[in-house]
Amino acid sequence: MRLALAMLAYVLPNLLPVSTAAADGREDSKHRVMQKNAELLLRVGSTIVPTTQLETYKEGPTEGRWTWIEAESGRARGWAKADELVRLDEAVPFFSGEIHASPADPLLHIKRAKAYEALGKPDQALQDYDEAVRLDPSHAWAYNWRGLFHRARKEYDAAIDDHSRAVAVEPGRPASYLDRALCYLDRGRFDDAIADLEACLRLRPDDAQAYDRLGWAFYSKGQADRAVEYCSKAIQLQPDFEDAYVDRGIAWFAEGEYDKTIADETEALRLSPEDPFAFNARGWALSAKHEYDRAIQDFDRAIERNPRFARAYTNRGIARAGRKDFDGALRDLDRSIAIAPDRPRAHLNRGIVHLIKGEVTRAGADFDRAIELAPNDRWLRYNKLIATLMTDPAAACDNAARLLGEVGPRDELGVYTAILGYLGARKSGRKDDAARFIEMGEKLAGGRAWQGHLVDYLKDRADERGLLAAADGPAQQTQARLMIGLKKSLSSRREDGLEDLRWVRDHGLSTDALYPLAVQELRRLGLAEAQARPTRPDA
């Protein structure tokens, strides 16, 4: 149910795992290593796995001439020969010596650039990347490495330009298409990403990462079923591909398959027990199932592993709101916004919590900021409409009419927008508009059984007993009681709605976007009762 608050805090695209090491090199470089040669042999179990991906690794225990290493990108781990590694704090002078001996070797400049990059010295790194391109402008890999550097710094246009040059000089190289596709994903150019990923797969049909990213591109386009298909193909090709389980789990979530999300994220954590993305995604699914205590435990683990994981703070805040710990929710949402102030969903959810607490002005400011950050997101304006209904029913009526002009016949947002318009029209005494809104709601409900029940009740075609009997699950029970309470509060005997509104406040699903309406109406009716009650003179 997208109207639930937990559903409004979308998990943004799960990019490839990023290093949790300090970007400026402040983490102890003596415990980080690089490979000396272009190819590194890793012993994984009884298998020797070669890797040509230049990486920085975290150093683990040593057994004789072997050292356990884990790539900070999360791509590889295993035992490597100690004499094939160089500690990061010694890497720049080591590769400088190699360059002095072979100044025309571009790969040596790439290696030193990687060392500078890992040490948080981007200007020196870029100089070496530029020199590698100058020394070998006819090979794609030099452009690709520089493109990867630009992407890591979120300089996406420069990265796309470098990867495009790589494609131009060596069109048969699949990695160039894959790397450019990752930049397109970062930019939100999903169709361009899909084209590049399909080109990569034509050249390298067994590329599990390309299938996984193809799945993510389709997920980002709203085609979660195709995302599941391609992530499953990635897992079939590489059964231990942790990223693919994380991404497929998120796609399952979009399909409403929360148990499958939990299963995939649990498998991802079996493969990589420290992955904050998997903890966050599993917590997200648990929160959607209203298992808030378990969800909070997962968000806690995600935050322990990445204290600046803004989405995990947002999602923990939502789970705390589900437990009606609204002050705790605000603390988490404040922290999320402090870390990532340009994420609209954090502002949206903080606005909803402010609404619940009766802080309507603050809520409006948060909704306005969310809409400013994502002006084309109709769900943000829908939530702003709820806030407007609480303060200015006539304006809510007008805003609902405008929003209805943008929704399609299959958009579930439409029915709820029509209901809010109906309530605004009733509250502001615009009977004709109320009739038009509820007729529009009936038309948009179509085959949606639950939304049809809500419209039938508001049109007096069903009684409250029938509506409550039709309500299935906490969200529908919350909405049923809310509509009963609001409808009664609009009648001449407003106090009749108090019992249902109190039920919503005390027992309803507080992560439902409509929940604040019950709390606000109780405040309004309570004030009216207090004003109507005779006062006693002071003794």
Report the uncertain regions.
Answer: 1-28, 528-539
The description of the largest β-sheet is:
5 strands, antiparallel
Q: What is the CA–CA distance across the termini?
A: 55 Å
Q: Order the strands across the largest sheet as they lie in space.
A: 6-5-4-1-7
Count the E strands. 7
Helical content band = 55-70%
Number of helices: 27
Radius of gyration using CA atoms only: 28 Å
**Helices and strands: which structural class?**
alpha+beta
- Average pLDDT works out at 88
Q: What percentage of amino acids are in beta strands?
A: 5-15%
Describe this structure in words.
This protein has helices at residues 5-8, 88-101, 106-118, 122-135, 140-152, 156-169, 174-187, 190-203, 208-220, 224-237, 242-254, 258-271, 276-288, 292-305, 310-322, 326-339, 344-356, 360-373, 378-391, 393-404, 413-427, 431-445, 449-458, 464-470, 474-489, 498-507, 515-532; strands at residues 32-35, 40-44, 47-51, 56-63, 66-71, 77-81, 85-87. It has 539 residues and is an alpha+beta fold. Strand 2 and strand 3 (47-51) form a beta hairpin. Helix 25 packs parallel to helix 27 (515-532). The longest helix is centred in the C-terminal third of the chain and has 18 residues, at 515-532.
Topology:
Blueprint: H1 5-8, E1 32-35, E2 40-44, E3 47-51, E4 56-63, E5 66-71, E6 77-81, E7 85-87, H2 88-101, H3 106-118, H4 122-135, H5 140-152, H6 156-169, H7 174-187, H8 190-203, H9 208-220, H10 224-237, H11 242-254, H12 258-271, H13 276-288, H14 292-305, H15 310-322, H16 326-339, H17 344-356, H18 360-373, H19 378-391, H20 393-404, H21 413-427, H22 431-445, H23 449-458, H24 464-470, H25 474-489, H26 498-507, H27 515-532
